[in-house]
Amino acid sequence: MKRKRIVSNAVKNGLLALYALFALFPLFWMVLISFKSDAQMFNTTFIFNPTLENYDAVLLRTDYFKYFIDSIIVSVIAVLISVLAGVPAAYALARYDFKKKENLAFTILSFRFAPEILVVLPLFMIYQKIGLYDTYFGLIWVYQLITMPLLIWVIRGYFEDISVEIEHAAQVDGYSWWQVFLKRLLPLIKPGLVSASLLAFIFAWNNFTFPLMLSGTYVETITVASLKYIASDTVHYGQMAVAATVSALPAVIFALLIQKHLVRGLSFGAVKG
Amino acid sequence: MAKIEVVNVTKRFGKFTALKNINLEIKDNEFFVLFGPAGAGKTTLLNNVAGIQIPEEGLIRFNGEIMNRIDPAHRNVAMVFENYALYPNLTVYENIASPLRSPLYKKDNATINREVHRVAELLRIDHLLERLPSQISNGQKQRVAIGRALVRDPNVFLMDEPLAHLDAKLRHYMRSELKEMQSSFNTTCIYVTHDFLEAVSLGDRIAIINEGSIIQVGTREEVYYTPCNEFVAALVGEPEINLVDGRLFVDNGKYYVETLEKGYLLPLPESSGIVRKLVDSEVTEYHIGFRPNNIKYTFEKKDGLIRGTVYSFESIGNKAVLIAKVGEKYIRMIAPNDLKVKLDQAVYVELPIHKAIFFDAQTTNFIGTSDEAAIYRLVQEQLSKGVQ
């Protein structure tokens, strides 16, 4: 019996290790490349002379940090706005009965249906005309298409899971509506809020189509900027790898910080409703 | 500590009218029970008093002050919700302490600590204070919910079926505890239940509510001995009252009711005044109510008793319910637990005509009762109230 369990555990762990290798190897490969010089790019695999040349080139000799900060500004503010507007919207969708409620909820979700490329050309024209082209606000605005539906739908499920009597009880206890919301409801939706925000942040951070078409000189995100390392004569894979590695860091760091909320946060509540 | 008035309150949900023109006056320090079947509007009425819902028409007054536009927080009411409504992320201690930490009813930490422990001991949950609601049983959750109300000193306690999920022993204990607490705390309490025993054992007065309307308001004696219609008679009392058809029959100046079988006459007691009431009502077709505990029976043939057969015999704890089939009618009565009885055996039933309640067969409304003792007691009660 005990022996059987040891064997089955070993098999399980072996399979998991295999999967981890499969999942992490591209990342590992990317990090590896970032330390290779252009000369050793194609004729070495694991054994080469590691160099910080690429890091020096990307981080110190280009505007990489500017792009990085741009990406941060645009993604973080987009998520913040989505939280500020989306949480009340989710609350309304969960709690109040109004005409065409489900239609509205579906419309919000449908923003995620169409491929971005489909809307980006008309948006480009409109942005040019109304002066939103190549501005922070323009990107933050269009990122709402990505971040808002996600937040609203996850958080709505959370609110629906909270019985309305809990709100009533808190009101009777002597809390005003805002205090009920902040002190009693917010802690209950926190796991969902945190994980949905992270996911929204990652989606916004990774977005390529919108910043490609709707910004370019004054505002430039890291996804678009990475293209710069494809020069006309040669492709600097090492420099691209550096850009990609560094740009993956924020999402990884955030995910590690909120790890305990993550899986439970997205699976609990979201499936119901 | 307030007098609660509900004046012409109507509450609608879309096209559905949940409360129809409700009028109630709940006295200061009164233990007032709202009693009715499921879906009667009991909880809705409670929510309107608490301010969780606002009536479309009518007024809610606390001590004469109109509360319609006051939010629940500022009404200073304590409420026990039927589904407990505990905060799942807070410990039992913090759940109970919640009202005392709110901006409106804030107390210092020492007071909170003392009060929470006092209430927890009273409710026998002091060993659970550090647990989360998900880690305790339903009965314990219900006691935490009661505790959250009891730590306060509110205008009125609103309790929505607070004992529904407790086991029988604990329910009995909590019932007496609540009653005692209420008398020693001097607080008004509105208590919702669908349990007849809770209603009569706790309520100073009982309001019977059905389909959004108040049917009758009265003391337990009033609703038991003089129910205003058949609905109330059936709701109050366990096992349910027997209602049999009857007809007024006059012979040689003597008054009888003919019931169950043609020619089976029961002489109406002259002294109780029931004859007067029946004649004055100008109704001759009745439904006559006999409480199961008043009905006598024997297994030997006796003159004047009506014959039936034993239909069922079921123990309900310390006593049993014997159902006899008389003609097409089933008569419920109380029997001792150890009664030896065979199904379909002959049984002779004596209907206690001196303890009968008469209803109009058409309208099902109360006409009168022949129970002199009950009338005497009710009159005494009225008089003693008048003296107060």
Folded structure, characterized:
The complex is a heterodimer of chains A (273) and B (388). Chain A has 273 residues and is mainly alpha-helical. Chain A has a single domain (53-267), classed as MetI-like fold (Orthogonal Bundle). Chain A is built from twelve helices and no strands. Chain A has helices at residues 2-34, 53-60, 64-95, 101-110, 116-130, 136-161, 164-173, 177-206, 209-214, 222-225, 237-257, 259-267. In chain A, helix 2 packs across helix 11 and helix 8 crosses helix 12 (259-267). In chain B, strands 6-7-8-3-9-10 form a six-stranded mixed beta sheet, with helices on both faces. In chain B, strands 13-12-11-14-20-21 form a six-stranded antiparallel beta sheet. In chain B, strands 15-19-16-17-18 form a five-stranded antiparallel beta sheet, with no helix packed on it. Chain B is built from eleven helices and 21 strands. Chain B is an alpha+beta fold. In chain B, helix 3 crosses helix 4 and helix 3 packs parallel to helix 5 (138-150). The mean pLDDT of chain B is 86. Chain B has helices at residues 42-50, 72-75, 92-101, 109-122, 138-150, 168-185, 196-202, 220-225, 230-235, 274-281, 372-387, and strands at 4-13, 16-26, 31-35, 57-62, 65-66, 77-80, 156-160, 188-193, 205-210, 213-218, 242-251, 254-259, 265-267, 285-290, 296-298, 306-315, 320-326, 329-335, 346-350, 357-360, 366-369. Helix content of chain B is 29%, strand content 32%. Chain B folds into two domains: 4-234, Rossmann fold, CATH 3.40.50.300; 239-387, Nucleic acid-binding proteins (OB fold (Dihydrolipoamide Acetyltransferase, E2P), Beta Barrel). The A-B interface holds A 163, 165-166, 168-177, 179, 184, 187-188 and B 47, 50-52, 71-73, 76-79, 81, 83, 85-89, 98-99, 102-105, 148.
